[in-house]
Amino acid sequence: MKKLKITLFVFLVLTVFGIIKVNSAGISTNELDKKVDELLSRMTIEEKIGQMTQITAQAVTKQQGTVDQDWELDEEKLEEAITTYHVGSLLNVYDKALTPEEWQKFIRKIHHITEEKTRLKIPVIYGIDAIHGANYTVGATLFPQSIGMAATWNPELVKKEGEITAIEMRASGIPWNFNPVLGVGVNPLWPRLWETYGEDPYTASIMGISYIKGQEGADNDVSHNKKVASCMKHYLGYSAPLSGKDRTPAWIPDRVLRELFLPPFEAAVKAGSHTLMVNSSEINGIPVHCNYFLLTELLRNELGFEGLIVTDWYDILNLYEREKVASSPKEAVKMAVNAGIDMSMVPFDYSFFEDLLLLVQEGEVSEERIDHAVRRILKLKYELGLFEDPNPSANLVSQIGSEEFTKINLQAARESITLLKNADQVLPLSKNSKVLVTGPNANLLSSLSGGWSITWQGNEEKLYPQEKNTILEAIQNKIGRDKVSYVPGSDFDKIIDIGEAERAAENTDAIIICAGEFPYCETPGNIDDLSLPQAQIDLVHSMIATKKPVIVVLVEGRPRLINKFADDVQGILMAYLPGLEGGNAISDVIFGDFNPCGKLPITYPRYAHSLLNYNHKYSEVTEPNHYNPQFPFGFGLSYTTFEYSEIKLSRKKISKNSSIKVSVLVKNTGQREGREIVHLYISDMVRSVTPPVKELKGFQSVFLKPGESKSVSFEIGVEDLSFIGLDHKRVTERGEFEVSIGELKSKFYY
């Protein structure tokens, strides 16, 4: 008894000091490891390889139909998957979102089969791309896409998005989310730009951490029934295709890879994200799915990632079929697994299972390598509490799409909207105004949300909740239907009735043109020209010719070129893809019920072949070349004005063990209260590797009433001055540095 008390005391001390961690189910890390090892020791090689196999819901579906059909499970196929092939994971939907009840029924059926008809009763883990809310659950809260969330510069809102998404996923019975996207969006052509947090690695790191903590909790205890396992993706360099087309090669020097693209993933590893998904394409001629250096040496050995690595869709087979680095599907499996892959998103069949089994039997893949992978899979399932109770909680369903969540979503959409132009203070419009609403995005819900919304491409308008407001409907509700005329004018790429729009404009005070893009996702979103389609340009020009004030609302996932009319319209709002509350948020901004505060997390280019990012090199801006975007990174107007003054540094010299406090006084010099996002940049004046002109190292939000001033402070440490040096390792060199906030600058030394 005395020995038991001593043991318990030691356990409690170790727990208090964080040496032994205990989850909400009361399981310590030591106990968990023992459970995993014990279970692993009882598994056959077939059961192990089955755990590494992930198939799509389509593989266990009866019909091969369209979104017009109701989804129907094929229980015989599901049972075969679980009992014959021992699959460890399922993912995705078949064509369209399911109701919470359909999800719960499906998930319960999966777990019933594992409980009743398998030897070891290992639960199946379900994964989903819930990238801006639980977008494959009917009635879920659909937030602005990540590019819009980045434009809020509000990590707390990003964290709340993660929390709400986790609750609505768990209500559906799904504990694993393939998000956040941590690629740094440096190429505006790329059709997945809107899934990123923009072109800056610091911003992507901060927002990524916030999202992960929202999903997993402060201590990453995902056994809680309101938390899920996050999945950082797509490791590594996926967001920088040379051609701008999805899933095409990237050419990234190792130093640049480490400087620009690795930091968000390194931050996510430190933040405790449980899983990681791999880049579908290649870097410097080597597909990432078979890149041992990136998957094992860098990710595991250098960054210390201990979680699960899952492939992207079909990408092991792509090593054979598309990349042509494997001579057969079997060799592709060998290359990927030996490089470090733990789970294969196959996703349609059991070829991975069959090939890997043969490879182990032939000695081409060691059982030790299999054990490493399966141990991570089992550990994740234990950490998620699936062995305790794998079934969804019915009492969470009532929270899906709740009023509380909707209010947070509306606030996120409002804060994301970025005012890019406001000539002669045309905005906000008076609610007594008569307006013409026109353009292809005026009366669509689908375009507000974009891809990964109810369906993969997000383009099935009839599936969207009709109680939500389009931009047109929100404006009608705001000022009255009698004050609003509506003429489509043009579709996305063809003229419809511009003449009718011109006639309708005669009796209005202002024209609101809702331009931009139709929903798309991944490869179907590839384009050859970043310009806005000519039909929409023609519509804008025709409205300018009416001599009425023209406000263009851009609903788009990437910055389509607007140089042919930007100088001639009075107002421009960048709405990004603002989600299901986007219509209301846009209306609130246009009519002054919300003062816009969003700022661009990307550079908005002026020309098709001038695509410099904000953190370009000095040599890129020598005459006649210069950084001349339509709107620069970090730009965004307000209905009030802000003045910066009195930049102060607590010291002029920083040492290895010290820091510098930087403060600036921000004053609201306008007539309305408003929020200002303050950005701090650092420039390294001379270093051994050519420096960028500046790098973002901090941002803060300050809310000010008219005439009010507040001091905003930042702290700079030596790590903020570091870069990837000549030896490809992070280093800080002594010398002169410059800090800039707005137009204010001050120098210091290290």
Describe this structure in words.
- Residues about 1-15 have low confidence and may be disordered.
- With about 750 residues, this protein is of the alpha/beta class.
- α7 packs across α8, α18 (about 470-480) crosses α21 and α19 runs parallel beside α20.
- It is globular.
- It folds into three domains: about 45-400, TIM Barrel (Alpha-Beta Barrel), CATH 3.20.20.300; about 415-620, Rossmann fold (3-Layer(aba) Sandwich); about 640-750, Immunoglobulins (Immunoglobulin-like, Sandwich).
- The strands form seven sheets. It has a six-stranded mixed sheet, sandwiched between helices.
Summarize this structure briefly:
The chain is α/β, with parallel strands linked by helices and 750 residues long. The chain has three domains: 43-399, Glycoside hydrolase, family 3, N-terminal domain (TIM Barrel), CATH 3.20.20; 417-621, Glycoside hydrolase family 3 C-terminal domain (Rossmann fold, 3-Layer(aba) Sandwich), CATH 3.40.50.1700; 642-749, Immunoglobulin-like (Sandwich), CATH 2.60.40. Helix content is 31%, strand content 17%.
Give the SSE map.
Elements: H1 2-16, H2 29-41, H3 45-51, E1 53-56, H4 75-83, E2 89-91, H5 100-117, E3 125-128, H6 146-152, H7 155-172, E4 176-177, H8 201-216, E5 231-235, H9 254-261, H10 263-270, E6 275-278, E7 282-283, E8 286-287, H11 292-302, E9 308-310, H12 315-321, H13 329-339, E10 344-345, H14 351-361, H15 367-383, H16 403-416, E11 418-422, E12 435-438, H17 446-449, H18 471-479, E13 484-486, H19 498-505, E14 510-516, H20 534-544, E15 550-555, E16 571-576, H21 582-590, E17 642-649, E18 659-668, E19 674-684, E20 695-704, E21 709-717, E22 723-724, E23 730-731, E24 736-741, E25 744-749
Parallel strand pairs: 1-2, 1-10, 2-3, 3-4, 5-6, 6-9, 12-13, 12-14, 14-15, 15-16
Antiparallel strand pairs: 7-8, 11-16, 17-18, 18-21, 19-20, 19-24, 22-23, 24-25
